[in-house]
Design goal:
Number of helices: 17
Oligomer: single chain
Shape: globular
Strand order of the largest sheet: 14-13-10-11-12-15-22-20
Structural class: alpha+beta
Number of strands: 39
Distance between the termini: 102 Å
Helix content: 25-40%
Length: 682
């Protein structure tokens, strides 16, 4: 039996779930793993999972995970033979691949030439077109100015897409449906591209009607072998960011699947590609037999697990073997797809507040298990979710004999996933999976944006409020002495007196809700708000699992009392119910009375912690309500903060400033009335 491993030690130049996923394969192969971490990730799971770990800098990605010299120093210090870059950060950076070679360390990825050609969208599009692969009509001449792009837009036609030449993941992409929108979109796209990729080069593409995003997974070795592993459907996107992916695509027939796979292999062969890579195509739902090259991702993809589930291959293991010089172990004829797999990305974000990134500490965690279910995650209880990095927390993957079974399993897995302490998009994901077009496989890249305004999110129900009150009631019972007057049961010599609990939860501005409990937690009469008294009981089953009886019904909930809040989880829905004192309720109502009849607040506050990347107004400017004032970036996403009222603006921040949640970034003064205009004495 040959037990020789391709490398002795591999350093993972990444963080989060992908670092943990790579470590799992390294352990299976018997290879020593080395993690790198920033100060923000000192206690992260990938650090404790690895055999060794090296600090590479402060929390800022630019000073840690994007610092080529720091990563190379860590690899040298740890004795690493090779570096796996994961995805994002330095994974498609030709300078990093070159630095690895200079240090005598194997880069587990393609060669520098392939990185340089495919890393430039303009160059790659022109290169691929010359190889006979169809590309989307547009203008991809390098170095076009805004004036030249405006002129070219008339030739390309509307609607169109502005795309940055460097980078990927949809960052900096903007759709434009009318010439009047073009100027502002070009300015924003250049700024985003420059900040994200250090290159503000842009090009234009025609917007394909009813577009579907379909990508092909490739493996290529150093001996000239190139195969494809079928395709993935990635059409469920929000703002060009993938949300749900699946394999194979429900759109393609066998003949088109073979043609698109052959085209992808031709793209890889044209640049001498080595390793695992993905070629992305745009396919019109109206013409499913016609496809256009978009770009090549020269790395492992976030959604690679769905391909692994239907092929039975470990793509990370294949990457490592290829980097070690081994030949592919499969011919194209050996590749077969079994069943169907679907992946959902779980993010720390608040869908009800425009998907603003969410921060917090994970107080309770339970990840799904069961037949056909896989979770790729870096989560653990006590983990602090900050604003320094991408908000993706985990990926939940389900495999079934067919698409219908995979969908059912994924929905069940999401319902079973509990993350308390930070807002997530889990309920939103379940709503998407229940959409009739998603169930039928009628997908396109604009579907989520069209459906979003019609989604209805759950609110805390009477049963949730009752359960939270009973949990606090049970805690008070444990703390009470033996005297009947000290117990919260409400017992008195005369009329019994219920114990009252005040909660506020759900959407911003929700009114406090009173819950009155008479009796003990194992059997009480509970009144929620102005509703009727209802028989209720709470019984702890295991850990955070509780059986809650409410009237004639019983259900299982997960409950957690944490400080001044109770967190409730119910089949994918979770809510933080803040516990208020009577004094806090009174103060809130007095403030509401004081605000009544007054105009909107003149203060513009940041809705999340982040970094100011642009200031759109100057102190002293007169602006209208809705005007953009400051742009804040958090978790790799931009958020425009706008004027709530018209007036004269005073800006309190500058580009590069770090801002906290709810920090005032600008203030508006009301416009001067005619009687106060200078020189008017009448």
């Amino acid at each position: 039996m040959n037990t020789k491993t391709p490398f002795g030690t591999v350093l993972i130049a990444n963080r989060g779930e992908i670092a943990c996923r790579i470590i799992r394969t390294l352990r299976t192969l018997g290879i020593r793993s080395v993690a790198v971490y920033s100060d923000a990730d000192r206690d992260a799971k990938h650090v404790t999972d690895a055999d060794a770990a090296e600090r590479i800098g402060p929390a800022s990605a630019a000073q840690s995970y994007l610092d080529i010299d720091a990563v190379i120093r860590a690899a040298t210090a740890s004795g690493a033979d090779a570096i796996h870059p994961g995805y994002g950060f330095l994974s498609e950076n030709a300078a990093f691949a070159r630095a690895c070679a200079d240090a005598g360390i194997v880069f587990i990825g393609p060669g520098v030439d392939a990185l340089e050609v495919m890393g430039d969208k303009i160059r790659s599009k022109n290169h691929v077109a010359a190889s006979g692969v169809p590309v989307i009509p547009g203008d991809s001449r390098p170095g076009l100015s805004n004036a030249e792009l405006t002129e070219a837009a008339e030739e390309v036609g509307y609607p169109l897409l502005i795309k940055p030449s460097a980078g990927g993941g949809g960052k900096g992409m903007h759709s434009v449906s009318d010439p009047s929108e073009l100027e502002e979109a070009l300015i924003t796209a250049r700024r985003v591209a420059a900040a994200a990729f250090g290159d503000d080069t842009l090009f234009l593409e025609r917007l394909v009607p009813s577009p579907r995003h379909i990508e092909v997974q490739l493996l290529a070795d150093t001996h000239g072998g190139v195969i494809h592993l079928g395709e993935r459907e990635c059409s469920l996107q929000r703002r060009h960011q993938k949300v749900i992916e699946e394999a194979p695509s429900p759109l393609l027939d066998d003949e088109t699947r073979a043609r698109i796979g052959e085209a992808a292999c031709r793209v890889a062969e044209s640049v001498g590609y080595v390793g695992a890579g993905t070629v992305e195509f745009l396919v019109s739902a109206e013409r499913p037999d016609e496809f256009f090259f978009m770009e090549m991702n020269t790395r492992l993809q976030v959604e690679h697990p769905v391909t692994e589930e239907v092929t039975g291959l470990d793509l990370v293991a294949e990457q490592i073997r290829i980097a070690a010089g081994e030949q592919l172990r499969l011919a194209q004829s050996d590749v077969s797809l079994t069943g169907h797999a679907i992946e959902a990305r779980v993010y720390a974000e608040d869908p009800e507040r425009g998907f603003l990134p969410a921060t917090g500490t994970i107080l309770a965690l339970r990840e799904a298990t069961g037949a056909g279910v896989r979770v790729d995650s870096s989560l653990h209880s006590g983990l602090v979710i900050g604003s320094d990095y991408d908000p993706m927390l985990a990926k939940v993957i389900a495999h079934g004999t067919d698409r219908a079974e995979a969908l059912v399993r994924l929905d069940r897995a999401l319902a079973d996933t509990t993350i308390l302490g930070v807002r997530t998009n889990i309920e939103y994901l379940r709503l998407l999976l229940a959409d009739e077009d998603v169930l039928a496989g009628r997908l396109e890249t604009s579907l989520i944006d069209r459906r979003l305004f019609g989604l209805t999110f759950r609110r805390p129900e009477d049963e949730h409020l009752a359960a939270a009150a009973l949990l606090l009631h049970a805690e008070r019972e444990k703390r009470s002495t033996g005297s009947p007057w000290s117990r919260p049961s409400g017992w008195r010599l005369g009329d019994h007196r219920p114990t009252s609990y005040l909660f506020v939860g759900g959407t911003e501005g929700s009114e406090p809700e009173a819950v009155r409990v008479l009796g003990d937690a194992r059997g009480a009469s509970v009144t929620v708000g102005t509703g009727p008294a209802t028989a209720a009981a709470l019984r702890r089953v295991n850990g955070d699992d509780y059986s809650v009886v409410w009237g004639d019904e019983s259900r299982m909930l997960r409950l957690l009392s944490a400080g001044s809040s109770v967190w409730v989880h119910d089949s994918g829905f979770s809510a933080e119910l803040r516990v208020l004192t009577r004094e806090q309720v009174l103060a809130t109502r007095l403030a509401s009375i004081e605000r009544a009849g007054k105009p909107e607040s003149p203060d513009v506050r940041s809705p999340m912690p982040g970094t100011v990347i642009s200031v759109e107004a100057t102190t002293g400017d007169s602006v209208e309500a809705g005007a953009a004032l400051v742009v804040v970036e958090a978790m790799k996403m931009e958020h425009k903060l706008t004027a709530s009222v018209a007036g004269t603006v005073t800006v309190h921040v500058a580009p590069g400033d770090l801002v906290k949640l709810d920090q005032v970034v600008a203030t508006l003064s009301p416009p001067a009335s005619p009687s106060t205009v200078e020189g008017d004495t009448e």
